[in-house]
Write a structure and sequence with these properties.
Length: 342
C-alpha cells in the first residue's frame, strides 16, 4: 500500500539536510560551478523521485511538481535559518562561502524561517487537498502572492545592495524560482473559483519630508540598511501595493467586483511575507546595531508594521466570509431551476 502523496513529499524533503551535510564535508564540491551543478542535479533527482511517487496516478496537476520541488527547498531554507541562529551547525558553511553569502543577513534568515515554516506547511496542505479532490486554488494564490513578494525583494536587493559585487553562479538558480510563482499564479487565476450562488434577493451590508527623515533615523533606521532589501521592499509597496490598495478601495464600494476574492488573498500573502521578513530583520542580531530599531522606539515601530500586515489579511477575511457583495447576483428564477436540477 502506497503512503499518501503528501507523506512521500514530506519524507523526500527530509533528505535536504542530509544532502547539505554531505556536500559541506566534500571539499571537491565546494567550488562555485560545482555548487551550481550539484544544485541542478539534486533538484533533477527530486523531480525524478516525484515522478516515481505519483506514477500510479492517472492524471497529475503540473502544479504538483512545482509545489513539491519548493517543499524540498523550504527545508533547505529552514536549515539555513537554524544554522545562522546557531541552533545547528555543519550544513550551510560551504554554500554561504561559495554560493549565496547574502543568505547570512537578517532579512534572509527571516525569509528562510517564513519559507521553512509557513510555505512548507502550506505546500503539504495544498498537496493533500490536490490528491483528495478538494479545491486548493485560494491556498495556491496565498502562496503565489507571498513567493512573488519574496522574489521581487530578494533578487533586486542582492543586485543593488552590498552583495551585488560578489554574486556567484549559484545565485542564478533563483531565476526558475522567480519565474515559477508567476506561472503558478497565472494558472490559478485562469481556473474558475468555487463560490455559492447568490440570489438577487439576498440582502448584504454596504459596505513632510522632515517627518520622513525623523522616522527613518530615529524610529526605523533599518530602512537605510545597505543590504538593499528594505529599499526594494519600499519601492515594491509604492509601485505595486499602493495601486492595488486603491483598486481594493474601489472594489469595496462597488458591488459585483468578483476579482476582489482572488486578489485580496494574493495581496495578503505578499504583504504577510514581506512584513514578517522586514520586522524580524529590523530586530535580528545579524543586523548591525546602528540599523536596528532603537529599544525605546520598539513598540510604535512594531505596532505600525504589524498593522501593515494585518490590514490586508483582515480585508481578505472580510471578502471571503461575506462574499455576496462581490458576486454578480443570479436571478431568483434561475437559482430555483439550479436547485431543482440538484
Amino acid at each position: 500500500m502506497r503512503p499518501p502523496v503528501e507523506v512521500s513529499v514530506f519524507l523526500l524533503s527530509l533528505l535536504a539536510p542530509v544532502v547539505l551535510y554531505t556536500i559541506n564535508n566534500i571539499s571537491a564540491l565546494q567550488e562555485t560551478l560545482p555548487i551550481l551543478g550539484m544544485g541542478l542535479v539534486v533538484l533533477g533527482s527530486v523531480l525524478l523521485l516525484l515522478l516515481l511517487a505519483v506514477g500510479h496516478q492517472t492524471k497529475v496537476d503540473p502544479l504538483f511538481y512545482a509545489f513539491a520541488e519548493f517543499s524540498f527547498t523550504c527545508v533547505v531554507g529552514l536549515t539555513n535559518a537554524l544554522e545562522q541562529d546557531r541552533f545547528i551547525s555543519g550544513f550551510m558553511g560551504f554554500y554561504l562561502k561559495m554560493g549565496e553569502p547574502h543568505l547570512s543577513t537578517a532579512y534572509a534568515v527571516m525569509m528562510s524561517y517564513w519559507e521553512g515554516i509557513f510555505h512548507y506547511l502550506l505546500f503539504l496542505i495544498i498537496i493533500r487537498r490536490m490528491f483528495n479532490g478538494k479545491s486548493y486554488r485560494s491556498l495556491g494564490l496565498l502562496w503565489a502572492g507571498s513567493s512573488i513578494a519574496h522574489q521581487i525583494v530578494l533578487i533586486p536587493g542582492v543586485v543593488i545592495g552590498k552583495y551585488g559585487s560578489n554574486i556567484k553562479p549559484a545565485f542564478w538558480r533563483n531565476i526558475p524560482f522567480f519565474v515559477a510563482p508567476f506561472w503558478a499564479a497565472s494558472v490559478l487565476f485562469s481556473r474558475p473559483r468555487e463560490m455559492p450562488i447568490i440570489p438577487a434577493d439576498k440582502v448584504v451590508l454596504d459596505c513632510p519630508l522632515d517627518a520622513c527623515f525623523t522616522y527613518i533615523y530615529q524610529y526605523e533606521p533599518y530602512l537605510k540598511d545597505p543590504v538593499g532589501f528594505p529599499r526594494v521592499m519600499m519601492l515594491a509597496y509604492l509601485f505595486y501595493a499602493l495601486p492595488l490598495l486603491i483598486a481594493f478601495f474601489y472594489g469595496l464600494r462597488t458591488p459585483g467586483c468578483s476579482w476582489m476574492l482572488d486578489w485580496t488573498i494574493f495581496f495578503a500573502g505578499a504583504i504577510a511575507q514581506t512584513q514578517w521578513c522586514h520586522i524580524g530583520a529590523s530586530l535580528h542580531s545579524r543586523t548591525p546595531f546602528t540599523y536596528r530599531v532603537p529599544a525605546d522606539k520598539w513598540w510604535p515601530v512594531i505596532t505600525l508594521n504589524v498593522l501593515l500586515a494585518a490590514v490586508p489579511i483582515l480585508l481578505a477575511v472580510r471578502c471571503h466570509t461575506i462574499p455576496a457583495f462581490f458576486m454578480k447576483p443570479v436571478p431568483k428564477g434561475q437559482t430555483d431551476k439550479e436547485k431543482k436540477k440538484n
